[in-house]
Every structure is written in structure tokens, then in C-alpha cells.
Fold this sequence. Notes:
Radius of gyration of chain A: 25 Å
Number of domains of chain A: 2
Organism (chain B): Ancylobacter moscoviensis
Family (chain B): Belongs to the binding-protein-dependent transport system permease family. CysTW subfamily.
CATH topology of the largest domain in chain A: Rossmann fold
Keywords (chain B): Cell membrane, Membrane, Transmembrane, Transmembrane helix, Transport
Subcellular location (chain B): Cell membrane
InterPro entries (chain B): MetI-like (IPR000515), MetI-like_sf (IPR035906)
CATH class of chain C: Mainly Alpha
Order of helices and strands of chain A: EEEHEEEHHHEHEHEEHHEEEEEEEEEE
Largest sheet of chain C: none
Number of helices of chain C: 11
Oligomer: heterotrimer
Radius of gyration of chain C: 22 Å
Helix content of chain C: over 70%
Amino acid sequence: MVDYHIRLDGVTKTFGALRVVDNLRLDIVRGEFLSLLGPSGSGKTTILMMLAGFQDATEGTIYVDGHMINDIPSHRRNMGVVFQSYALFPHMTVAQNVAFPLKMRGVGRAEIDARVNRALDMVQLAALSERRPAQLSGGQQQRVALARALVFEPGVVLMDEPLGALDKQLREQMQLDIRELHGRLGLTIVFVTHDQSEALTMSDRIAVFNKGLIEQIDTPRMIYDHPATRFVAEFIGETNLMEGEIAGREGGEALIRLDSGGMLRVRDRAEFDAGRRVLATVRPEKVELSEAPAAINSIPVAVTDSIYQGDHLRVQLQGPGQRLVARRDRRAAEWTPGAKINATFAPEDCWVIVP
Amino acid sequence: MTARLWNRKTRAALLILPLALFIGIFFVWPLGIMVKQSVLDDAVLHLLPRTTEAIAGWDRTAPPTEAMQAALIADLRAADDEKAVGDMVRRLNSAQSGYRTLMTKTLSAVAKPETGPLLTDVDKRWAQPAFWIAIADALEPMTDRYLLAAVDLERNKAGEIAGLPDGASANRTIFIRTFWIAAVVTFFCVLIGYPYALLTAASTGITRTILLTAVLLPLWTSLLVRTAAWFILLQEQGLINGFLLSMGAISSPLPLIFNRTGVVIAMTHVLLPLMVLPIYSVLLTIPTNLMPAATSLGAHPLRAFLHVLLPLSLRGVISGALLVFMTAVGYYITPALVGGAGDQMISSVIAFYSTQTANWSMASALGIVLLVITLILYVVYVQLSGRTSVNGRM
Amino acid sequence: MAGKLISAVFGVLAVCFLLLPLVVILPLAFTSSQFLIYPIPSFSLRWFEELFTTPVWRDSIVNSLIIGAGTTILATVLGVLAALGLREKLNFISAPLNTVFLLPMVVPAVVLGVGMQILYAKLGLSSSYAGIIIAHTVIAIPLVIVSVANSLQGMDTRLELAAASLGAGPAATLRHVTLPLAFPGIMTGAVLAFAVSLDEVVLNIFLAGPGQRTLARQMFATLRDSISPAIAAAAFLFIAGTVLLTLLVLLARRRFSGAR
């Protein structure tokens, strides 16, 4: 039996005529790291706000451990929240900030001190306990916020773009730190982000949001390799999209007649009826380039640009009726703009979605 | 609405409630009482309760009934407040000439117990409906005469609105004087305040600090202290006259106090910060490179000023001017202390009616006129400056 | 060059105009003369002695302090509560109330004086401390509301959400987070309320009896009748008090911003 820690059942949030979250059904498994990923305005932060109790669901029910919590105020939900801008209390020291949730729970002074020290040790900030937040760097503030949200041992930790304000290097370090804490403490973490690489790095599962609806919820690998919709395919990473229709089946593979001319062979799926309009997606790193045309899935293209990007080479291509992108190893041959070549890929690297 | 949202709103409402009640009772209610007081006129009604009942069905043309006459006799006999009776007679006489003599005669007649029940026996004039119409009108509990009198108007015998005879009242003169003084003060505030704000916005470092402090310090200083200070400066043996005398610029002291000059100087000083600050805050929002940009495009600095800076800062000037004018119109302390008899503004008249003669109806009527003027100016100010807070004290 | 000179001369003259009155009154507080005029024959503290020993002046100082303290407490409590409540948007209530709460700043004191005089006659509040404190509170409220609302607006609302998520109920959030953070604004509002009460004359003329004569009212009366240097001494007290209060506010703000 799967142990659902949190369940959202038919949750809807409207602001006036705007449906920010629309009839959402979502189960969050105990101990999982779930990312809510989407562009701004997709409703992901609103869901977090409803979970934390800062906003009320217009309709629907939220359950934690099987109990409905809609009418439980924030301060009795026992969820740790890490805010985008950390929301540290500026008039309190680091230690006072971390002690705050324990003080609110009436924990004894000696135990508060012990637990605060432990929490600050965990985020390696014990030396700065008497500083004020304003005297800390962004990364240090972030770690204080983390310690404060964890010190009272909540079952659930909600994080709202907690790394958004950090520079790239620090952000990547914190991603690993938080992942490590998650594994060590067995927490259920709901993590809101608009950064797809962050979601891919950290999550057990990702829920991709668009306009208040979940487009897809799955593991990072499935989300990346087998996007369910055009939105997911385009939002997660870069992709090449080719429009066409199913022309027929042949030996466990489906044939797609591209609108731009030419045929593709892809892995067959049962739901593909002949004549159905489809989108074939190929990730840039799966695109091979060669001077000679390949036997199958070969598209004649002209190189428009070739850009050196350090760890890889990005090749812009103009095919019949559409542009393509290929990502090649940086040691691969550089194609000069104007060269007429062929783009090709294996049938199993092409994923077909319904537009 | 969910229960928790409801709770939050209720909590907010409960937090606001004490102040709402307080302001309702001690701010809105007094203003309401004033409005009521200015249109309420029940003095005669209180004096003649029986007549009020008897006259109710009367059609204002028929000869007075016996009941009306008997009631009036009874009321006049019962009236023991001489001042109130006197007020009533004065009022009736202003509506219908001849009432004074008629009433004198009637009052001495009703003092004798054998008089009655018919007043026509006392004087033939009681048979004329005109005298009874005057009573019927005086019994109306609502009146516009105080409000009309506040702007030197009255209702003539035909009931039309007409001007008071010359010399009967000076309210209009005082209102005009109030506006004039306020306008002159506003003019001087713009004259000094606008260049001052420009200078402040253009300056940097210590200069700007000094200029800003010089504006803020008076604003923070007690109005009385500032007025007292001008007293010291402006009086006959004061510093200004002393300085001018020693320079040989004048041979005898200039009259600077207890006249219009003193009022304008002191009020300009007191209100100048209210002009400088709005202009300054608008000037701060104007990018500093606009003027150099204009001159680099070939505009003469004066033209650049006229076409770039002036239009952009005009909003601040108008805000400041409205603020100064609005505040000046209601001023009391400064004119009372450094002005002469001919420099008193409308506030002094209101204070006179209210504290000296206890004529609350007249004080209320004048107060309402002043209040309405102030509120109109305030609404314009808010519309213009797009905010509801005022940077200053009244 | 000429333009620079003209602006410099104008600036100096304007600063003189603004500051001269404040400067000239202070030394006269220490004159030994009977008159409020320069030159000062010799320095003496006789007018301060007069201020603190003559019953009219001494009582008026005491009255000012009593009424000022009462006004500060009443206006601050009512204003802070309302400013907190006004953060929640209540349909059809918040905006009009906000306007009404600020109106006492706009209505001429004389007008308010007439209305309150009639009301006080009905309620029996004329010539009472309570009546004067209430009247001063009415005109001090807008300043308290504005300064407290400003500091509340400048506050990150997520701090209160954070407090709630950490287990603080509404009361605890208010006590540990909201009020400490709004403290500079509350302090400013309280000082402004005290200053307004100290300086108020018009309402006192309408509402106070001889028993509630304040320092400002006494100065007003003295300026009208017998112009004695006691006024300069009183003005000195006023200015010293203002400077002291301003320093207090600055100190409170400094301490707070140091804490940030």
C-alpha cells in the first residue's frame, strides 16, 4: 500500500474570474521530494500557499495523514516553510530566529538551546549564531531559513523557490545540500521552482504545471525522455518538434509522414491510429549529423550556425520547412555555415506526442 | 467565504472598531451637530407650544381662530424667559414690521388676568393674517437663515433670497479678506518656496542637508513659538526695525505688527515648509539629466526650464499651493496674535460667536461654510497628488 | 556665474528667513529685562524661575504634561489598533474609514472646536481633562495612523506568514514579529501625538476651563496681554523638548536599523 502523506482532492483556487488552480488532484508520497515546476502564474506557488495555510482553497479538500486540514490555521499545521526571500526576522539573532518555532511550542530553555545548536551545526552556521540576518550573506541566510524550518522536526517542508536569489555556484551547492538533508531526515519536501534543471537535479518526482493544471507528474527521467504534452516537451530542456501524421505501421514501428515531407520511423504505440496528427520530438543531443544521408530518419538540412558553448557544440540547422537544433560533442567536427548535411536519429530516441 | 477568512476579517474589524467609534463620537458627531445647529431653529417652538398645536390646521388666509388666540395668550403668560421672548419679538419684527409695538402692548395686556380669550380685543392688528403668518413661519423648526446670514444673505418678506442691507453684517467682507490673505500668503510661499525647492533639489551634500533642515526645523517647532518669535522680530522696538534704524534706512520705526504686513510675513514663514516639501518631492522624481539633455539639444537654459522643468514640477507647485491655501484659510492663532482688528480672518469670527456670545447657530453656520470650502480644496488636493496623507500639521 | 551668485544669495536669505525667528527667541529666555526686546542687558534665569514658581505657568506646564501624556497614550493605542486592522481589506469599509480617520488633519481647528463645544455641553465634558485629552486625540490620530501605517506597509508580509508557519498564532505573531518591526513607526506616531497636544491652542480655547490651561494656551494668553520674556523661556522649553523628542526617535530608529 502506498502511504500518501498529503492528498489534494479537487482543489481549486480562484481570484475573481481567474482560476489559478483548477480542480487539482495530487497525492504526495511520504518521504518523497516533489517539485512543482512551471512558469510564473502556473499556480504552483498558490498550491504551496494553500498547503501552508496562507491561502484558502476556494473548493476541494486537502488531507494530511488522512485528516482534512482546510480549516486548520497555519500555526497549527506543523509544516516547515522556506520562503523565496528567506523571511528571517530582522530584529532577532540567528539563534533567536531558529529558536522561534521551539519557543512558540513551549519547549524548555535548555532543550531549545540544544536543539538550536544541533540545527545550526547541521547547516554549518554554529559560529554565526549571535549575528543578525542583515550581517549574513545570501547563502548563510538561506541556511538559517532552512535550520529554522527544520528545527521543530516538521513532517513536511514546503519550499518556495528557496534558491532563486543565490548565484549559480552557490545554488548548485545548496541543491546538493538540501537533497542530502532530505535523504538523511526522511522528510516529505514540496519544492516550488521555475528552474527545470533544479527540478531535474533534486526531485524524486516532478509535477509540471501550466495554467493551474498538472500537465504531467512523473520521475525526472520520464518527464525528460517521455514528455506527455508539447508544453512539457518545450518547458523541460530544449527539443526539436516536427509535425506530421501517422502513415502506417511496419515491424513494431510507426511511420510518420512529416508535413515538411519525408518519413520518420518511431517506436510504435498502440494508440496511434493511421491518419492521426502527431508531434515527433527529438532532444538536440540525440540528433546525429552526417554528410551522407542515413537509411532511416534522415532529414536534409543546411547548417546556419555553429556555436561553441564550452562543454558542447550547438549547431543550428535549417531543414525543409523548419529549424532544428543539434547538440554535439565539442570535439566533433565543426560544420561551417552553409554546409549541406543530414540530420538523423534512432527511432527509439524520437518520442511522439499528440499535439 | 471560509471560516478562517471570516475570522481574519472579524479580527480586523474588531481592531478598527474602537477608533471608528471614537472618531464617530468625537469627530463626526460634532460636525453633524454643527450642521443641525446651523439649520435648527426651535427657540420660538419651545416658547409657544400651545400656539404650535392650535395653528397647525390654519390655512394662512382665514382670520385667526379663537383657539389660536387663546393658545397664544396662554403661551405668552407661561413664558418666563425674558431673553427668549425678546429674541422672539426681534425675530417676528424683522418678518413683519410693527410687531415690536404690538407685542409690547400685548405682553402687558396678557399680564392682566382679565385679558382674553380674544387677542383682537387687545389690538385690532391681531385680526390680520400677516401677523399670524409671521408666527407660523417662526415656528418652523428648520431654517436657512443662519446659513444665509453666514454669507450676508437673508430672506425678504416675499421669501426670496436677498442681500443684507449694507453695514448690517461683515461676514462676506471677512470671507473675502480671508481668501485674500490666504492667496497673498500662497503667492509669497510659491515665490520663495519654488526657487527654494529647485535649489534644494539641485544641491548636494552638506548644502542640501542645510537647506532641508532649514525647512524641517520650523515645521517641527511649535506654531506658538514661531508666532512669538515673529512678535519679537516685528514689534516697534524689534530686531527688524532696530536693524533698519541703525542702518539709517528709515528714520522712524515701520509699523510691522498688528497689521496686514505682519500677518502675511508670519503666515508665510509658518506655511512655507508646506510649499517647499511637495515641490521638492516632485522635483526628486524628475531625472537630473533632463535639463542638461535639453540644453545639449540647443535650448537656452531659460527655455529649457520653461519647457522641461516647469511643466514637470507644476504638479508639486499646485499641490503645495492648495495645501498652503487650505491651511491658511482656517488659520486663527497667527492673525489673532500679530494681526490688527482689520486682519482677523473667518476663524476669529467663528471663535467670537462660539466663545464670546454663545451664538452656536451662527458659529455653526459660518463653520460649515469654512468646512465646505476646506473639504473642496482637500478633495482637489487629493485628486491631484494621488494620496490621502498631508505632510504637515494644521 | 551671476546665476550662481544669485542662487547663493537667495539661498542664504531664505535660510535666514526660515531660521532667524527660531534663533532670535532663544537668547531672550535668559534676559534680565522686563521686556521681550534686544539688546539683552544681562543674562539671568529669572524668567525660568518665573515659569517654575508662578502658579499660572507652573500649573500650565503640569497640565500640558498630563494632557500630552494622556493624548499620547490614547492616540497611540487607538491608532495602532486601527492601523493593524486597516491592513485587512474590508469591502466598503476600509477606504472610507481611512479617509475619515485622516480628516481631522484637514478640518480647521476652529470648526472642530465649535462642534465639540456644543457636543461637550451635551455630554458634560466641558472644562475637563478627559474632554481636552479626547479633543487632542482626535487631531493627533491622523499622524499616528499615517506613521504606523507607513511602517506596517514597509514590512515584508512574509515575515508574518513565516511566523505562522513556525507555530505562532495571531497574538504571538503580533507580539513577537509585527509590533517589534512596527516599533519605529509607533514611536514616531506617539511623539507626533505628544507634539500636537503640546502645541494645540484653538481647541483649548473652545473646550478647556481655567483648570486645564496648558502651556501653549498660557503662552497665547500672555502674547495677547502682557508680553513678558516668560514667553521666550517657555519657547525655550518647547524647542528643547522638541529636540529631545526628535533625538529620542532618531535613537530608537538608529537602534532598530542597527539591528537590521
